[in-house]
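Lecture 7 notes: from sequence to structure.
We start with the chain below.
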Amino acid sequence: MDATPYASDMQQIFPGEVFANTADFDTGIRQLLPRYDEMLEVISRCVPSSCDRILELGCGTGELSLKILQRCPDAQVIALDYSPRMLQFAESKIAAAGYQNRWSGIEADFGDWANNPEKFAIGREFAACVSSLAIHHLQDEMKFHLFQQIAVSLSSHGCFWNADPTLPESPVLVEVYQAAREEWATQQRINLGEVRDKKGTSVTQGYSSQDQLATLNTQLQMLTKAGFETVAVPWKYYGLAVFGGWLRGF
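Predicted structure tokens for the same chain:
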């Protein structure tokens, strides 16, 4: 099967797929989001290298999975994603890197997992849970419910790290963040108009829809209420953030 499939309808894509052509994702996302690789690198560094079982929610094309597998030599990664074409792309990439025996991709909506974990034979006691550019597609109530399910699925000293865009706390910051993004694109000689022309139009899929951003502070409070003893923000670049924490403090 073609390793770079197209969406069945070039204009209708799942939230999070971003581009109509999957082959555009890895390049396109790096053109849309400043410091994309740095953001994922931070998550991989926050996950202890000794971790054995790691759950990834919304694996996309497998970029974060690769970084985790490289940094955690004994880790088995179980990745949930509702996009068949993303899973296919990720699986091919993981296999090419030689990690196919340590990675399992499951076609599933992680919102469904949060509501009905018993449907999925993946167990609990994960040493870590990670996610990137996916949870912001959930409504706030569902975000909190997901954080609760993550908390009960981690081992006693497990950790959770998420990379996502966040809602600016003020209209002033909306302008600041947008200006910074445009300036970064100019410095990188990126034509954002051309990149955006490659995007598809997302439609609601399961529990996810178009961007439903929450402020960083709101989500940190959600994590605390969900049972995380220590919460932290190891990385932030304007409206992008890596945040999460440990179920039990150290």
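Points to note: The two ends are 47 Å apart (CA to CA). The chain has nine helices and nine strands.
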